Amino acid sequence: MTTAQILIKVAQLMLSLSILVIWHELGHFIPAKLFKTRVEKFYLFFNPWFSLFKFKKGDTEYGIGWLPLGGYVKIAGMIDESMDKEQLQRPPQPWEFRSKPAWQRLIIMIGGVTMNIILAFMIYVAMLWVWGETYLPPQNLTYGLSVGPLAEQIGLQNGDKIVAVDGKPVENVSSIPYQIIVNQAHTLEVDREGVQVMLPVPQGFIEKLVKSKGQGFISVRMPVIVDTVLPSAQFLQGRLEKGDRVISLNGQPTPFDQEFQHAEKGMRNTVVTLGILRHGRDTVYVKARINDQGLIGFGKRPPEKIFQFETRRYSFLASIPAGIHKGISSIGSYLQQLKLIFFSKQVKTSDSLGGFITIGSLFPPFWDWQAFWSMTAFLSIILAVMNILPIPALDGGHVLFLLYEIITRRKPSEKFLEYAQIAGMIILFSLLLYANGLDIWRHLTGR
């Protein structure tokens, strides 16, 4: 991956996190103001020791920190990550969080999670209205699937079409690995040259699939067709033309992209002979040089120009319930993933956790607004679900103590809340170090 592509991924991650953090903190800020609770600070990113930018308006200091691990609002009279004990030693003031009724404090605390869910719904509604839903159904795979070593272990073959997972029809080819993992699939129904074949998913396979992150499993089987010829291309004999289909490399048949990539390996800075099918009938040969990056000098025709993708279109009014339904389904799917990570014997927790490197890698190495907003919506759901977990220092921890107070009519002592906050911060900091440490270890070891 080039430096420019890495920077594009980082830029998308930073913009997405900024949107999510600001929106989340507004969820605390707005109800706090409505209930006349003083908000002392509103920060994007954390600012230990110094801030990159800040200004004060009214009682609130607004700023941008230098540590991009989230953000915060500092609400007067509340035990939070600032651990401001001095303020709590003074008598409660009417404008402080601790002086407000429990129901108002509860609304302030669940505001961030609520806003993240609303944001995800809004993004999904907008995406369905603007772009609709585009997907590739298995029946439109002209050449079937290209299978890797992992897929071969369960009996899949090149050209197969997976049409159902545990009896549930597959609508979108790209969702197949996800369906297998989340549903802990036991069987795959395969269309093999018109014959229906049932393949069992063996014990331990899902663990391998999670660990591989889908690599070596399945991909769309497609021919190598020249879409664009790059100015940097070096031809020693003949030339490539748009629409040419590459059928061999140095005499080795390459009917599909998988075979072409395998034949091309280890051929940097060499001259190769390409067998070309031109106009669907003429076979010609072209000599070209592969550069030091392993590129011959042409762009391949993308899947959307080869296969018939299906698109569902929505009017603005129709996109609203459809977007909300998509958001609810995404929440359910993420909860299933969490259950899988922590309770399934087939999936190791360490294989599924990841930090900022893992998150950043999910963005494409080019700027695509549709992919960006789709990823941002899903991250918003992740942020909402993770924040509502009943862990001290998270919103869910505060909510848990408030519900206890409402039910028992007994408020936990400030000393207890202080110790709980410290314990929660230790847990969260440990998880943060562990997840990002895994990322670094995977990067260094190539796993």
TrEMBL record:
Its cofactor is Zn(2+). It is a multi-pass membrane protein. One of its GO terms (biological process) is proteolysis. Residues 141-194, 213-280 form the PDZ domain. Its EC number is 3.4.24.-. The chain crosses the membrane at residues 6-26, 106-131, 371-404, 416-435. It is found in: Membrane. InterPro entries: PDZ, PDZ_sf, Pept_M50_Zn, Peptidase_M50. It comes from the Bacteria. GO terms for molecular function: metal ion binding; metalloendopeptidase activity. Pfam families: Peptidase_M50. Keywords: Hydrolase, Membrane, Metal-binding, Metalloprotease, Protease, Transmembrane, Transmembrane helix, Zinc. The keyword Nuclease does not apply. GO terms for cellular component: membrane. The keyword Iron does not apply. CDD domains: S2P-M50_PDZ_RseP-like (cd06163). Belongs to the peptidase M50B family. PANTHER family: MEMBRANE METALLOPROTEASE ARASP2, CHLOROPLASTIC-RELATED, REGULATOR OF SIGMA-E PROTEASE RSEP. NCBIfam families: RIP metalloprotease RseP. This is Zinc metalloprotease. The lineage of its organism: Bacteria, Pseudomonadati, Bacteroidota, Chitinophagia, Chitinophagales.
